[in-house]
Design goal:
Family (chain A): Belongs to the RNase PH family.
Helix content of chain B: 25-40%
Strand content of chain A: 25-35%
CATH architecture of chain A: 2-Layer Sandwich
Radius of gyration of chain A: 21 Å
Subcellular location (chain A): Cytoplasm; Nucleus
Strand order of the largest sheet of chain B: 1-2-3-5-4
Structural class of chain B: alpha+beta
Shape of chain A: globular
Keywords (chain A): Cytoplasm, Nucleus, RNA-binding
CATH topology of chain B: Ribosomal Protein S5, domain 2
Pfam families (chain A): RNase_PH, RNase_PH_C
Number of domains of chain A: 1
CATH superfamily of chain A: GHMP Kinase, N-terminal domain
CATH topology of chain A: Ribosomal Protein S5, domain 2
Distance between the termini of chain A: 46 Å
CATH architecture of chain B: 2-Layer Sandwich
Order of helices and strands of chain A: HEEEHEEHEEEEEEHEEEHH
Oligomer: heterodimer
Number of strands of chain A: 14
Protein name (chain A): Exosome complex component rrp45
CATH superfamily of chain B: GHMP Kinase, N-terminal domain
CATH class of chain B: Alpha Beta
Number of helices of chain A: 6
Structural class of chain A: alpha+beta
Distance between the termini of chain B: 45 Å
Chain lengths: ~260, ~280
């Protein structure tokens, strides 16, 4: 019988704090072994939940999703889940019986505009940094190894989508601003979010209403979004590489050695 | 691929026999409900929707709260509950509307997103400042789904609002546009397609675009599928052009209904009317 994986906080969960001016988003990934949905026996379970509580602004209530929250959840779902960034088939352990359930909990601690872009960045960063326990199958027996037995493995990650939001100002909506603060957001006449990866693939576009914008401007914004996304990709790659270097102590041999700094 | 690419490349005809820039049959009626302030029924191919507009009316006790929730984050609407009418949009998708019967609750996020999109697009287009302290309620019912659902909902809403006589800047019309190759970066011969049905929507990348009147101004743009950024321009151009075609059709329907009402004596012909009704 497969046993429930023992979580070890340092290895299995990773908290990322995207701290920009006054904006903090916390994304936390956890994984557990469960039974897959009966209609998709070969897929693992992957879900993203977001919560905007009264901590962000007094107008948000617990258990009563506001418009912002609905749009944020939909956007993350379209950008990361529907675009196939995570290979859910790789989460399947025994078809129809056992699979990994990966869950991302997004907590917004304080918001000062541009919530969507930072939330998406935090989720992608957390998922790429996440390591799940290694497993092996012998016949019918599934073994989940603790981090001490075997090095945890990263998720099968296919591409990294990022969001770029453009806000439009002015009567004609021809003034474009990126990365707006909360105050600026109150004055915008329209906004448009593009989700792309560095290969120039659009995962999602949403300009949900607002003042009508010239079509040519939308095309220009899409090109700008691609440049921004490439910047984001480089930033995240650099951060992850730095972290991997810091964690890599030279494997088991270094751990077993009796040498120390003294 | 179920979209028969072999016949498409040979004859350039889609599965339902249309060419790349053909709209499906668009049939619409306005003033279908006698009791309502404004109503419409619209078919785009096999997608069938009904729209009923109530208002501008005094907000009901329960509605005020929902209206605030709907308009809360909208920058265009701001906190303008007092000096402008608030817009409430409800979309109900009938259980029998698609092939497999599926119950969709009120909390379905996909439907909520469509409601917000329509509500925000209307907020920027309608002259809500003329009706302070009031609510305009738009109820949409989806009777049958065969692709371009959001586009059909937006078009039906525009017609119903015209029937209700609510002042607006111009028509907001919408349609979908797709691209024939799903994901092959090197495929330059990919044609953009106009007005996709369900089968094409499942196979191909597509976007829904809504424009204001005859202009190139994009009121709403929703894309949910993976597509190369270089493809966007072609799809958008075809979509905007399709919106113009839809506008022409809707305008024809409104004019036909208007002249019929005058002939029947329901309304008086105004001397100020500059347009000729005989066509």
């Amino acid at each position: 019988m497969p046993r429930e994986a023992e979580p070890s906080l340092s290895e299995r969960t990773f908290t990322l704090q995207a701290i920009s001016e006054g904006l903090r988003v916390l994304a936390k990934v956890s994984a557990e072994v469960t039974v897959p949905f009966p209609d998709r026996p070969f897929d693992g379970i992957f879900q993203i939940t977001s919560e905007l509580g009264p901590m962000v602004a007094p107008s948000y209530e617990v258990n009563r999703p506001t418009e912002t929250e609905v749009l944020l959840a939909r956007l993350l779902e379209k950008t990361i889940r529907r675009s196939g960034a995570l290979d859910t088939e790789s989460l399947c352990l025994v078809a129809g019986q056992k699979c990994w359930s990966v869950r991302v909990d997004l907590h917004v601690l304080s918001a000062d505009g541009n919530l969507i872009d930072s939330a998406c960045f935090a989720v992608v960063a957390a998922l790429r940094h996440f390591r799940k326990p290694d497993t092996s199958i012998e016949g019918e027996t599934l073994t989940v190894y603790t981090p001490a037995e075997r090095e945890p493995v990263p998720l099968s990650w296919l591409h990294s989508p990022f969001c770029a939001t453009f806000d439009f100002f002015g009567d004609e909506g021809d003034i474009v601003v990126v990365d707006t603060t909360w105050l600026e957001e109150q004055l915008r006449v329209a906004s448009c979010t593009f989700s792309l990866n560095k290969h120039g693939e659009i995962c999602q576009i949403s300009k949900l209403g607002g003042r009508p914008i010239e079509a040519t401007l939308v095309i220009q914004c899409a090109q700008m979004a691609l440049d921004k996304v490439k910047e984001f990709t480089d930033l995240l790659d650099a951060k992850l590489a730095e972290d991997a270097k810091r964690r890599d102590k030279g494997g088991l041999m270094a751990e077993l050695s009796a040498e120390n700094d003294r | 691929m179920p979209l028969d690419t072999s016949t498409y490349s040979l004859a350039l005809l889609r599965i339902d026999g249309r060419r790349w820039n053909d709209l499906r049959r668009l049939h619409a009626q306005i003033h279908t409900q006698e009791a309502a302030d404004g109503s419409s029924y619209l078919e785009m191919g096999h997608t069938k929707v009904m729209c009923v507009v109530t208002g501008p009316a005094e907000p009901q006790a329960g509605q005020q709260k929902r209206g605030t929730a709907g308009g809360g984050g909208a920058g265009a609407l701001g906190g303008g509950q007092k000096d402008a009418a608030s817009i409430v949009v409800n979309v109900v998708v009938a259980g029998f509307s698609s092939v497999d019967r599926k119950r969709r609750g009120r909390n379905d996020r996909r439907i909520q997103e469509m409601e917000i999109t329509i509500q925000k697009a209307l907020a920027a287009n309608l002259h809500t400042h003329l009706f302070p302290h009031s609510t305009i309620t738009v109820s949409l019912h989806v009777l049958s789904q065969d692709g371009s659902l959001l586009a059909a909902l937006i078009n039906a809403t525009t017609l119903a609002l015209i029937d209700a006589g609510i002042p607006m800047t111009d028509y907001i019309t919408a349609c979908t546009a797709g691209s024939t190759s799903s994901y092959a970066a090197g495929d330059d011969s990919a044609d953009p397609l106009l007005d996709l049905n369900t089968q094409e929507e499942q196979e191909l990348p597509f976007l829904t675009v809504a424009t204001l009147g005859d202009s190139d101004k994009v009121a709403a743009l929703v894309c949910e599928s993976r597509v190369q950024v270089s493809r966007l321009e072609g799809m958008l151009v075809v979509g905007v052009d399709g919106c113009r075609q839809v506008r022409r059709l809707l305008d024809g329907i409104v004019r036909a209904k208007g002249s019929k009402m005058i002939k029947e004596g329901v309304v008086q012909r105004s001397d100020l009317m500059a347009v000729s009704l005989e066509e």
